[in-house]
Amino acid sequence: MPHLIAPSVLAANFGQLAQDVQMLNQSAADWIHVDVMDGRFVPNISFGFPVIESIQKVAQKPMDVHLMIVEPEKYIEQFRAVGADTISVHLEACPHLHRTLQQIKATGAKAGVALNPHTPVTLLADVIQDIDVVCIMSVNPGFGGQKFIEHTYRKIEQLKALLLETGSDCLIEIDGGVNQQNAPKLLAAGADVLVAGSFVFSSANPVQTIQELKTIKI
User: Among all residues, which ones are annotated catalytic?
Assistant: First the structure.
């Protein structure tokens, strides 16, 4: 399967969010990545339900919603209601991860699990069959524009081995510091989905940048 590109609207111009989403509609992007932060799980606050619903009204591509929040189980149904197609929760925020994954699936959304840089992929072994997307954080969550963590390549390889061992068809998503230089190596290690925020939205031609990421060959 060709790899997927999921630009993160956290790096968009909030003063012209609708126009930026329209740009993504017209680009080679596959998903629209939406980072939700609560100021508790991470030291920042981003989008709430009204903004996500507004994005959904314009978006013509699936919305990949990444919950960097505590107690995500309280809000799963609401995120689905405002347009989330994939809902990813952090393993570190879910003491009852299996239950939360089943809750997400019950809404009809795809279930994702995100891992902080310090969290080993081996902790997913007992729930990997219930996961549609694993989001490996390649920066510390909470802010855009951070430096890519090199150990990410090794984590991708470890996760890929777990997927092969268990026969899972789960997608591997990489979020943080993705650019034209490291993308080929990420894909070669086994990544399926690349999230790119600052690299896309700070470029002179975001549509061209997305196209270049989409057409990388390994």
Answer: 35, 175
What is the helix, strand, coil percentage profile of the chain, to 5?
Answer: 40, 20, 40
Binding site feature residues: 8, 33, 35, 66, 142-145, 175-177, 197-198
Residue 31 vs residues 62, 96, 126: alpha-carbon distances, Å: 5, 28, 28
List the domains of the chain with CATH numbers: 4-214 (3.20.20.70)
* pTM value surpassing 0.85: yes
**Token pair listed for 183:** 């993308």
pLDDT tens profile 66-92 = 999 999 999 999 999 999 999 999 999
What's phi and psi for 57, nearest 5 deg?
-65, -25
Q: Which residues are annotated as a binding site for substrate?
A: 8, 66, 142-145, 175-177, 197-198
Q: Which residue has the tokens 């002179």?
A: 204
